[in-house]
Amino acid sequence: MKTLKDVISLKFKTSESEGVIFHGEGQQGDYITLELKKAKLVLNLNLGINQLGSIYGHTSVMTGSLLDDHHWHSIIIERHGRNINLTLDRHMEHFRTNGEFDYLDLDYEITFGGMPFSGKPSSNSRKNFKGCMESINYNGNNITDLAKRRKLEPSNVGNLSFSCVEPHTVPVFFNATSYLEVPGRPSQDLFSVSFLFRTWNPNGLLVFSNFADGLGNVEIDINEGKVSVHINVTQVKKNRIDISS
């Protein structure tokens, strides 16, 4: 396909911070890749190689953050020549691609949810998308519906299910005064705790526990945006350990 205009739209939700959402490439050096990197949305686009080499035609735009929150996010990419509108959750960014070409020339297959292994270093370092997509629309074609009705030929559908599996994790929201207290294990000489968290606040207490028999305590907190671990042990000479990251 050689197009002057493109409109690509879809919705996604995922708990993964990395993954290719959409990819297409051609023999003239053209490519378009939409992917998650560090839970941000990245669009890479090149409308073809010119005399100076493909690097000058390469354009990369990053938008959004914390997109691995397992909530639905909507994307619309509108291209007319070198002019691009990228809309994420109704926030639109306008930019113009580098290079000197207006047409996107994709002679190979277009893939959603990953990219085919091409032998290039860029392809095998990228993760496939893991999560849910819906309402995939490519230049007026309802890809989701066509795939479900097996009307895409030729196509390669790898291990897809037309339902959205919810994760088994149960999130807990804490306000400024709430806390969760659980019973300790006094007969154990091992203290182990693991959890995921997300906050906009630079300071706050995450975990606190006294050791049995007055042997000290452990405290995990956020201080100026850094996670700090403080361990106090009463029966040894070096009785305090502080770790910050």
Automatic annotation (TrEMBL):
PROSITE patterns: LAM_G_DOMAIN. It comes from Nothocercus nigrocapillus. SUPFAM superfamilies: Concanavalin A-like lectins/glucanases (SSF49899). CDD domains: LamG (cd00110). Residues 1-164 form the Laminin G domain. This is CNTP2 protein. Pfam families: Laminin_G_2. SMART domains: LamG. It comes from the Eukaryota. InterPro entries: ConA-like_dom_sf (IPR013320), Laminin_G (IPR001791), Neurexin-related_CASP (IPR050372).
